[in-house]
Amino acid sequence: MTIGALARKFGVSRGTLLHYDAIGLLKASCRSDAKYRVYSPEDEERLRLICLYRSGGVALADIRRMLDASEPKGYAEVLRRRLGAIGDEIVRLKQQQQLLVRLLGRHGAGEENSMLNKNQWVALMRATGLSDDDMHKWHREFEKMSGEAHEEFLESLGVGAEEVKKIREWSRQ
Q1: Which of 27, 43, 126, 131 fits a disulfide with 39 by CB distance 3.0 to 4.6 angstroms?
Q2: Rounded distance, CA 172 to CA 151, Å?
Q3: CA dist., res. 123 & res. 121, Å (int)
Q4: First to last CA, the chain
């Protein structure tokens, strides 16, 4: 398979494949008489794995080490490390999101806010037919499933820290 055909098959650019060649990640099995790169089925499988790991955000250097290893012992460690990095990034993004919500609240006074506040949420729940007992049950289930997400949800409604604490305690009873 030629470089253009391989690039099309995997939805990558020709330049990406040339880069992979330059760094030794994916070398063509041979060259044609006209000096064009020719990729074998094994090369295709290697590129499939490269694309798979790249879609998970694994660094090219880690992918190369994984694919060049005689045994896949280090795979789990690389994947765990990437998973941890994603977790850290999610935490940072949530912090940024909360900061922006607070800044919007502070700087958006007098503007239409597209997010619901506590009173609007309670009114919506009542309008759908939930009683106080139903809402208590809803909070209990949310707290049981994910206390952290429950807390973030309450904060997104503009509920203060002290009230969030009380609601969470009440939800655990």
Answers
A1: 43
A2: 13
A3: 5
A4: 65
Half-sphere exposure of 49 (CA within 13 A, CB side): 16
Mean pLDDT estimate for the chain? 88
Q: Cβ neighbours of residue 83 under 8 Å, at least 6 residues apart?
A: none
- 3-class SS of residue 38: strand
Q: For residue 88, what are its two tokens?
A: 């850290």
List the structure tokens of 117: 């506040």
* Residue 40 tokens, joined: 């074998």
What does the pLDDT average to over 87-98? 89
- Tokens standing for 44? 């295709």
C-beta separation of 65 from 49 below 8 A: no
Tokens of 1: 């398979």
CATH architecture of 3-68: Orthogonal Bundle (1.10)
d(CA 19, CA 119): 55
* Amino acid in position 25: L
